[in-house]
Amino acid sequence: MRKWGILAATLGLALAACGGDTTTGGSAAGSRLDLVKDRGQLICGVDGGIPGFSFVDETGAFSGLDVDVCKAVAAAVLGDAEAVEYRRLDSTERFTALAGGEVDMLSRNTTWTISRDTSVGLEFAPTTFYDGQGMLVRANSGIETLEDFQGRAVCVETGTTTELNLTDQMRQLGVDFEPVVFQDADAAYAAYDEGRCEGMTSDKSQLIARRSTLPNPDEHVLLDVTMSKEPLGPVTVNNDSAWFDVVKWVTFGLMQAEEFGITSANIGDFEASDNPDIARFLGQEGTLGTDMGLPNDFMVQVITQVGNYGEVFDRNLGADSQFNLERGQNALWTDGGLLYSPPFR
């Protein structure tokens, strides 16, 4: 808890350094929405090292679910999904970078918690991936439960809810383990691969993605344990409702498009739709977009250039990816999942 207190104080100083006006999200001139429009480019904070979420390849190209959320916001605001500059941020610098105005938003495997939402001063847009914390071990280690870590070492990224959850779980179980902490995920996974710790803990999706990058992925397994709830999604700084509304409703729009059955391939079929809900959603009626300071057809740009949530999931994590993850709780509410958009009305 002391760590969060220090972080909150640091962010407060960072906000003060931006002109002392916390109502503008780091921009003394107005909302960050205006700043992004004037700049003609969105600056999005990502991890950059997690395949399936945000990963930069040898050509410098970024891909992943988190990256596609950045692209969706850029398409909505600027009409160009490629008008994004990505900033790689480790877990200890991401919030300060956001509060200080270095980035316009985070789309970086960040867990929504009450302390981050209140004392740290962040705003969490809708969850784009429901996850849980797991543990990766070597298949031949003999480790089958968390209790087996008595006297053993666990690698973990510092400044994360993962680190705090691990401590809580082990204390509750009475397991005396050795935490080996690292400032960034690359160093933590490298240490695990070198055998400096018997276990690596993080969100399960990240462990699955990172396992694929180890020299012999089949030699590593996830324990059948879930240590926490990890709702992950985009983040903006507090007290800039105009900008937060844009990020929030673009994210909801990805889900709503899937619920309507509108994809990047068939969106032309919905031109001049006689369904009033779809007509409003696509900006053919009403002023839902312009009321937010966006073009009224902002969701047409998003769907055409990025796709709906189902398309984003499938190509990065699901059936069209190397991970082939089931949708599970990340399915739409109509399919038994947790994804749900309020009405576009």
How would you describe this protein?
The chain is of the alpha/beta class and 345 residues long. It contains twelve helices and 15 strands. It has helices at 2-17, 32-39, 65-78, 94-99, 114-117, 161-173, 185-193, 204-211, 241-260, 276-281, 298-305, 309-316, and strands at residues 42-46, 49-50, 54-56, 62-63, 84-88, 105-106, 122-124, 129-131, 133-138, 153-157, 178-182, 199-203, 220-222, 230-232, 235-237. A five-stranded mixed β-sheet has the order 11-10-12-9-13, sandwiched between helices. It has a three-stranded parallel β-sheet with strand order 5-1-6. The longest helix is centred in the last third of the chain and has 20 residues, at 241-260.
Read across the widest sheet, the strand sequence of neighbours is 11-10-12-9-13
> Number of DSSP helices?
12
Could you say which structural class the secondary elements and strand pairing correspond to? alpha/beta
Mean pLDDT: 91
Q: Give the percentage of residues in beta strands.
A: 15-25%
Question: What's the Cα radius of gyration?
Answer: 21 Å
* Residue runs with pLDDT of under 50 for 5 or more positions: 1-28
User: H/E series, N to C?
Assistant: HHEEEEHEHEHEEEEHEHEHEEEHHHH
Largest sheet: 5 strands, mixed
Number of strands: 15
- First-residue to last-residue Cα separation: 41 Å
Shape, principal axes of CA atoms:
globular
Percent of residues in helices: 25-40%
Task: Give a short synopsis of this structure.
The protein has 345 residues and is an alpha/beta fold. Helix content is 35%, strand content 16%.
